[in-house]
């Protein structure tokens, strides 16, 4: 094949796969939102535009999520250097509620105007816009699971906020903060990357990474131990529907030389799946077998195995577990 033809074919394939990736990342609602101006005079003006352009409750709820995730950036400076909590006094319940409302209105306005916020600003802004288009919505506070050391943590804490929105009589889970991107701790930079699966997230994934202060979801109790002791899952786990079927805990008690069996949904033998040892060297999984939509494989617990074992699928982390030495 001539060099010119090779170059043209390479260009075509690059364009094809970029467009394919784009179409998978953004749906029709997102494409409309991407054409919106970045600045509106007020939240009311934005809500009116969304209410005009979209008809169904689902479309409006998704449009609000997409606008926030695409336009508001997480304020890591504020997160790393938090301001002291504001204190206020009151004589009546009305005065208390009024001051809380004023404080929340201020957070919403700053997020909307400055295009920066922490999770409280994201969730309050989502609630403000959802209410404005006639949706029932709640702001939920609770714990989030994002770090290796969160596996096997003893207690929950309040460190995050998200939303529940009612769509056609069913409550859906929304995290606009995580929908906008993430923080790369190794490079210490904020990465703006739209994550659409944090809208209407499957509860089995959502509550692997979120635990509400109430300990309940739609009046059903959430297993606190399952949250604290479960494996750490990543964005690619949710995006690829890679459910962890086995082990059922993120804490793996195992002897040296013993094999650990894993089962992960929607992975095939042809996929590139590996883990790293204590020196950062790549190690292959053992005995991979495809079974009814999942891959079963094993890892031998050796001295080279780290305290935490993280699996990578085609170069992206999907799940981490904590290895606990088993006494003889």
Automatic annotation (TrEMBL):
<feature type="domain" description="Transglutaminase-like">
    <location>
        <begin position="111"/>
        <end position="178"/>
    </location>
</feature>
<protein>
    <submittedName>
        <fullName>Transglutaminase</fullName>
    </submittedName>
</protein>
<dbReference type="GO" id="GO:0005737">
    <property type="term" value="C:cytoplasm"/>
</dbReference>
<dbReference type="InterPro" id="IPR002931">
    <property type="entry name" value="Transglutaminase-like"/>
</dbReference>
<dbReference type="Pfam" id="PF01841">
    <property type="entry name" value="Transglut_core"/>
</dbReference>
<dbReference type="InterPro" id="IPR038765">
    <property type="entry name" value="Papain-like_cys_pep_sf"/>
</dbReference>
<dbReference type="InterPro" id="IPR052557">
    <property type="entry name" value="CAP/Cytokinesis_protein"/>
</dbReference>
């Amino acid at each position: 094949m001539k060099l010119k033809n090779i170059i043209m074919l390479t260009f075509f394939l690059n364009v094809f796969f970029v467009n394919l990736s784009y179409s998978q990342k953004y749906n029709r609602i997102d494409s409309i939102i991407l054409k919106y101006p970045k600045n509106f005079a007020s939240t009311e003006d934005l809500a009116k535009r969304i209410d005009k352009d979209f008809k169904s409750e689902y479309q409006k709820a998704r449009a609000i999520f997409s606008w926030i995730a695409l336009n508001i950036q997480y304020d890591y400076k504020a997160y790393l250097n938090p301001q002291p909590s504001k204190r206020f006094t009151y004589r009546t319940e009305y005065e208390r509620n009024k001051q809380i409302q004023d404080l929340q209105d201020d957070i919403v306005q700053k997020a909307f105007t400055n295009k920066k916020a922490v999770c409280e600003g994201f969730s309050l802004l989502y609630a403000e816009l959802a209410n404005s288009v006639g949706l029932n919505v709640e702001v939920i506070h609770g714990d989030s699971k994002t770090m290796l050391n969160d596996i096997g943590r003893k207690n929950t804490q309040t460190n995050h906020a998200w939303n529940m929105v009612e769509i056609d009589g069913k409550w859906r889970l929304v995290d606009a903060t995580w929908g906008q991107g993430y923080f790369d701790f190794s490079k210490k930079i904020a990465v703006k990357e739209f994550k659409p699966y944090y809208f209407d997230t499957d509860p089995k994934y959502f509550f692997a990474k979120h635990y509400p202060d109430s300990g309940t979801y739609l009046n059903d109790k959430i297993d606190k131990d399952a949250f604290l002791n479960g494996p750490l899952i990543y964005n690619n786990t949710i995006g690829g529907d890679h459910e962890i079927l086995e082990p059922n805990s993120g804490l793996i008690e195992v002897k040296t030389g013993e094999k650990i069996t894993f089962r992960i949904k929607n992975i095939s033998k042809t996929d590139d799946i590996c883990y790293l040892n204590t020196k950062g060297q790549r190690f292959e999984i053992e005995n991979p077998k495809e079974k009814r939509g999942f891959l079963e494989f094993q890892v031998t617990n050796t001295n080279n195995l780290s305290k935490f074992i993280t699996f990578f699928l085609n170069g992206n982390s999907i799940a981490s577990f904590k290895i606990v030495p088993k006494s003889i």
